[in-house]
Design a protein that fits this description.
Structural class: mainly alpha
Number of strands: 0
Helix content: over 70%
Strand content: under 5%
Number of helices: 7
Shape: globular
Radius of gyration: 20 Å
């Protein structure tokens, strides 16, 4: 009998929520996700995990993606490990990772072998630059679509907006190294969120 996602002690999702049916479901879901992710994986992840499969709410996606970004390694790989572990523990994390990297890696190696002698062709270079512009558009569109998730953020809409603007200025205009952005702006966000959470929980503790 296949193992139910609910049988794993690490699965803390609500029982009435959509969820992967098995580790093979995780594997093929992340394989399909990776195969669509040419140029902008974050947009595909948000569409597949939140809008189609509904394994995550918008708020959960924003929170999990934030954690995935500050961890070492590719963001979407970190996210696949987190989702796999949430439902099936270590086995789920490894299967999600295998789906994320297995077949796409073979395709990348095949494309690298085919295109190894064509990268100096002006037409190929122009196509790659065009893909970069599309990728930027995908990231921007995904960010706009996720703004609504900040309405329920404990830090408040104004604080979220100010932190987002400060991050944009630091990265895009001032070219501040990412490590300092994480330490300074991320540290401020952490401290403010911690303060707000304590304020929210204080009346409950008093009661």
């Amino acid at each position: 009998m296949p193992e139910s996602p609910l049988s794993h002690p690490g699965n803390n999702a609500a029982p009435d929520r959509p969820r992967p049916h098995s580790v093979s479901d995780l594997f093929w879901s992340f394989t399909w996700l990776a195969l669509q992710g040419f140029g902008g994986v974050v947009a595909i992840v948000q569409r597949e995990m939140v809008e189609k499969k509904q394994w995550l709410t918008r708020e959960e996606f924003v929170e999990d993606w934030a954690v995935a970004q500050i961890l070492p390694g590719p963001n979407v790989v970190n996210l696949s490990l987190m989702i796999g572990d949430r439902y099936f523990g270590m086995r789920g994390a490894l299967m999600a990772l295998a789906g994320m990297l297995g077949i796409p890696l073979l395709l990348v190696l095949a494309l690298a072998a085919i295109l190894s002698n064509t990268t100096d062709i002006p037409g190929i270079q122009g196509a790659l630059r065009g893909m970069g512009a599309v990728a930027a558009g995908l990231f921007t569109a995904t960010g706009i679509r996720l703004i609504g998730a900040l309405k329920s953020n404990v830090m408040g809409k104004l604080a979220c907006t100010m932190l987002a603007l400060a991050t944009f200025v630091a990265v895009a205009l001032l070219r501040v190294p990412l490590i300092w952005v994480l330490l300074i702006i991320g540290g401020l966000a952490f401290a403010w969120a911690y303060r707000q959470l304590r304020r929210v929980r204080a009346p409950q503790g008093a009661a």
